[in-house]
Design a protein that fits this description.
Blueprint lengths: L5 E2 L12 E2 L4 E8 L4 E9 L5 E14 L2 E8 L4 E11 L2 E9 L2 E4 L7 E6 L14 E4 L18 E2 L21 E2 L4 H6 L1 H5 L5 E4 L3 E3 L7 E7 L6 H13 L3 E6 L60 H8 L4 H6 L5 E4 L7 H14 L4 E4 L9 E2 L2 E2 L10 E2 L2 H11 L4 H14 L2 H4 L3 E3 L8 H6 L8 H6 L4 H20 L3 E5 L25 H15 L9 E6 L3 E7 L4 E7 L5 E4 L8 E4 L7 E4 L3 E7 L1
Parallel strand pairs: 2-10, 11-14, 11-24, 12-13, 14-17, 17-18, 18-19, 19-22, 23-24
Antiparallel strand pairs: 1-9, 3-6, 4-5, 4-7, 5-6, 7-8, 7-10, 8-9, 15-16, 20-21, 25-26, 26-27, 27-31, 28-30, 29-31
Length: 619
């Protein structure tokens, strides 16, 4: 029986769970004592400090819960981000009902906040074909080297041994961080498409591939050229066509908040002749950049002088990226199926609006993903509340909240905190965006997941220390157990799992550049690889993972059990981080479920071994 005055996650109190579409009516109800004297109740919505709306809630005496009755109101709102609470007017004065945590609302607690409600644009749609899929992220220089002839700038340091540790010194010498190349290329990726497909992959996300004078290529030199070490434009077209035969899309990294100083646009080193913004105010590119009063010094990305910032709202730059003959349309016409936007939270709204138009004009099902590390529905950057997921900009974002929740939990965190992190995202994000979340647990920006789970924390230790560290056999085995727990959560939560190349075969390493080591072809951990192949296959074959339905069945300090479901299938996922086995009885008949991993169920009871998982599917 319900006794709380309000619960934002229960459709008894709020008829639509989570975010709502603009101008779509939903019902709010609060539960009040039948013998209490309440003269009136008002639902108060603040549209992110723009305006306040109040809705009087009426008696609903026919809707009774024991000694409680409800007051209800139908609400319809325009697009925006809202924060709301309730005010009850009693004989003793005004009382405020606020969020006390985990969706619960109560009157005048010692602490509490307003509830959040995301109202997204009517008709907001994201790609359907991506849902239920799997992303494979590739750092192109380090995946696979096909035998092709190269014509490259002579100031690049070419590694002769594929298995060497990446260079980690950071200085101006020829052999240093960012200037060592192992020569992985586009043809190499194409040759390994069969392997990638065996993992159940439906999208390949490539770190930057345009000409740039560093191995990470986030310092773009020419947006209209493939970097010569990666191949040619023809190689890119060939890769996209070959990937389509495996039903795999290619997603590019769009780096639009800055360029390289060593580029055709800025040209500080005069690699591209005498022109460029750095050398002349008459350059066609001068207005793109943020020069200071002296005309030579300039604003750069996070103070890195090799990455001069651009003014994305400069009409010339906006047109260059998003126009009819712009960068986005150019590469989508050559086979790209979408873009991941680097540092999306540093790109202005007007520019993001144009990026969406460019992507969707070329392909209505094009995938537009943004790098945002926090909750993308209430993120504030540069003093402004952002509207990434309200229907006019991104399809979805990189899901750092889930990544943090997964890693924290398997490394000793509280299952209740894990479930709360998950439910907060499910409640705040539009369902269209939830289906397309990029659920990663490791990328080119973080230490390898095995090292994060089992290695000694790097702390403030320098790269020289990090380069020498290897997991002991004991650490590696424990890391694998924890990784299987983390990967199962990653692959079964709402959204699309993103597998960082090499994690599936046991690559280790601390942060940049050690998380960007070469793929260990011929030295794979085949037991771990088989686990990932099974996980990918079962995920792809279960339609429940295409949608957003998720319910937690059991949560404790050291374990979580939840269900994913749709009208055709259901999956039970359990993770136990305790050393001892956990036996859990569920209010669910498990007789028709197939056991993918873990112990078979006994009627309605599951047993999860210590530091282990259970994965059941009924379809």
């Amino acid at each position: 029986m319900r006794t709380m005055p309000f619960n934002s996650r229960d459709t008894f109190y709020k008829s639509i769970f989570g975010s709502v579409e603009a101008h779509k009516s939903f019902k709010l109800s609060v539960l009040l004592p039948r013998d209490g004297y309440v003269k009136g109740v008002v639902a108060v919505f603040n549209k992110d400090n723009e305006k306040t709306l109040s809705f009087e809630m009426l008696d609903d005496r026919n809707n009774l819960e024991g000694n409680f009755y409800t007051r209800s109101v139908e609400v319809s709102l325009e697009e925006g981000l809202y924060f709301y609470h309730f005010l009850a007017y009693t004989v003793d004065g005004e009382r405020k009902l606020v969020n006390v945590g985990r969706g619960y609302g109560d009157f005048e607690p010692k602490s509490g906040t307003d509830f959040q409600l995301t109202v997204y644009k009517k008709g907001f749609k994201t790609p359907l074909h991506t849902r239920g899929g799997i992303i494979y992220q590739i750092f192109p220089d380090r995946f696979y080297k096909a035998d092709i002839s190269l014509n490259y700038p002579k100031d690049r340091y070419i590694k002769s041994n594929w298995d060497e540790t990446p260079e980690y010194t950071q200085n101006d010498t020829f052999k240093c961080l960012g200037n060592d190349y192992f020569c992985g290329n586009l043809k190499g990726i194409e040759q390994k498409l069969g392997y990638i497909a065996s993992l159940g992959v439906t999208m390949i996300y490539l770190n930057p591939i345009f000409e740039a004078h560093s191995n990470h290529r986030y310092n773009t030199a020419d947006y209209f050229k493939i970097d010569p070490l990666l191949g040619s434009e023809e190689d890119f077209i060939s890769l996209c066509k070959a990937a389509k035969r495996y039903n795999i899309d290619i997603i590019l990294d769009g780096v639009f908040s800055h360029t390289g100083d060593d580029s055709i646009y800025f040209n500080a080193k005069k690699r591209y002749g005498e022109g460029g913004a750095f050398n002349s105010k008459d350059s066609e590119y001068y207005s793109w950049y943020k020069f200071k009063e002296d005309g030579k010094d300039y604003h750069s990305w996070w103070g890195v002088k090799s990455l001069p910032e651009v003014n994305e709202n400069n009409p010339s730059f906006t047109e260059f990226i998003t126009g009819e003959k712009g960068v986005i349309r150019y590469w989508m016409r050559r086979g790209a199926s979408g873009f991941r936007l680097d540092v999306a939270d540093e790109l202005p709204d007007a520019f993001l609006d144009r990026v969406r138009i460019a992507v969707k004009s070329e392909n209505a099902d094009g995938y537009l993903l943004g790098e945002v590390w926090e909750d993308a529905t209430n993120k504030i950057s540069y003093g402004e509340r952002r509207r990434f997921l309200r229907g006019m900009q991104l399809d979805s974002v990189m899901n750092y909240p889930f990544a943090n929740a997964i890693i924290n939990f398997v490394c000793g965190g509280d299952g209740n905190d894990f479930s709360e992190s998950v439910m907060t995202v499910l409640e705040n994000y539009p369902s269209e965006a939830l289906c397309n979340l990029m659920n990663h647990i490791g990328t080119h920006d973080t230490a390898r997941i095995l090292t994060r789970l089992a290695g000694e924390p790097a702390g403030d230790r320098k790269r020289a220390w990090q380069a020498e560290q290897k997991l002991t056999p004991k650490q590696y085995l424990m890391g694998k157990r924890l990784l299987k727990m983390a990967a199962l959560l990653q692959y079964t939560l709402v959204g699309i799992p993103s597998l960082y190349y090499g994690d599936e075969v046991g690559l280790t390493g601390y942060g940049d550049p050690f998380c960007r080591a070469t793929f260990p072809w011929g030295k794979e951990d085949t037991e771990l690889l088989d686990f990932y192949k099974t996980l990918g296959k079962e995920r792809r074959n279960c339609t429940a993972f295409k949608g957003v339905n998720l319910e937690f069945l059991a949560v404790g300090l050291g374990f979580v059990v939840f269900r994913r479901f749709d009208e055709n299938s259901s999956a039970i996922i359990g993770v136990n981080r305790w050393e001892e086995a956990e036996k859990i009885t569920l209010d669910l008949d498990l007789s028709g479920y197939k056991t993918v991993f873990g112990n078979p169920p006994e009627r309605n009871t599951i047993t999860i071994n210590g530091k282990d998982i259970i994965f059941l599917i009924n379809k």
